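Deviation from plan, reported transparently: adenosine-5'-diphosphate complex.
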Amino acid sequence: MSLPSAIRIENLVKRYAPPRGGGEGKLALKGVSFDVPQGGIFGLLGPNGAGKSTLINILAGLVTKTSGSAEIWGFDLDRQPRNAKRAIGIVPQEIVFDPFFTPFEVLENQAGFYGVAKVLRRSAELLEAVHLADKHDAYSRTLSGGMKRRLLIAKAMVHSPPILVLDEPTAGVDVELRRQLWELVTRLNDEGVTVVLTTHYLEEAEQLCDRIAIINHGELIADKPTRELVEMAREKIVRVSLDKDLAGPIMEAGFVKAEVVESRVLEITYDRDKASAGQVLALVQSHGYTIEDVTTREPDLEDVFVRLTSAE
Ligand code: ADP
Ligand code: MG
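Because the crystal trials were delayed, the predicted structure below was used instead.
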C-alpha cells in the first residue's frame, strides 16, 4: 500500500464569470485530474494562460471551482476546508505585502492568523532559513524583489504545512536569485516538505522536479515521472559539418527535418525508432559530401513539450 497522495484533484472545472459586455466566461480548467505524491517536488508545467494559477488559486481558496473535487493531505476542500488549508502553504504569483510591517512582523501576523501559539512560532528561524535574518526589522517595502519572494516563502511556511506550493517562483527573476530559490526549495524538500511548483520554464521543471504534469488550454496532457517524460522524446538531432558548401537541401524518408544552419552545416532531426545515427550519416554521404564533424544533441523536455502542445 503506497502513501496517500499529498494532493488529489479530480475532474476540476473552472469557468470564470462572463465578461461584463456579455459572452461566455473563460473555461480555464476543463476537467483536470491528477495526484501529487507525498515527498517529492512536483512540477505543474504549461504555457502562459494554461490554467496553472487558476488551479493553484482554487487550492488556496482564492478562486471557487465550478465543479470537481480536491483533497489536500486527505482533507476534502469542500467538507474539511480548515484542515485542508492548514496542510498547505501557498506562495502566490503576485507579490503582495503590507509595506509598513517588518519581515518579522509579517511572519508573526501570519502565524497569528493561523492560530499558531506564541511558543510554537518560528519566525526568526524562518527568516534565517530564507537568508533574511539581517532584515528582521527592516520595512518590507525596502526589500528587493528577490528578498520579497523569499519572505513570501517563509510566510507560506509559518504553520509548518507538509505541502508548499509555489506559483511561478522564478518568473522574471535573475539567474542568481533563481539559484537561491532552487536551493531553498530543494532544502525544504530534503527536510520532508512536499513541494508543488508551477513554471513555464522547461529547464527548471526538468532539473528540479521528480514528477511533472503538463497542462495546456485547461487540459492535462501529461503526468509522469520526469525521466519517463523526457524519454518520450522520440526524436534525436545530429549536426554535421561538411567538406563543401551544400548544393541544395537534403531530405530523406527517415528524416523529420533537415535544416541548413550554415553553408556547410546541416542539422538533421530524425526519429530514433525509424533510423540510426549511422544511417543518417550514410544518407548524407550518399549525396556526395564528406562529413568532417558530427555532434549529436539528446532530446530534452522541450522536445517533448513542443510535440505534446502542438498535437491538436
Ligand atoms: P497560467 O497561470 O497558466 O498562466 P491562468 O490560470 O492565470 O493561467 O489563466 C488561465 C485562463 O483563465 C487564461 O485564459 C486567463 O486569461 C483566464 N483567467 C485567469 N483569471 C481570470 C479571471 N479572474 N477572470 C477571467 N478569466 C481569467
Ligand atoms: Mg500563472
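Residues 175-190 form the longest helix (16 residues). We consider this an acceptable substitute for the interim report.
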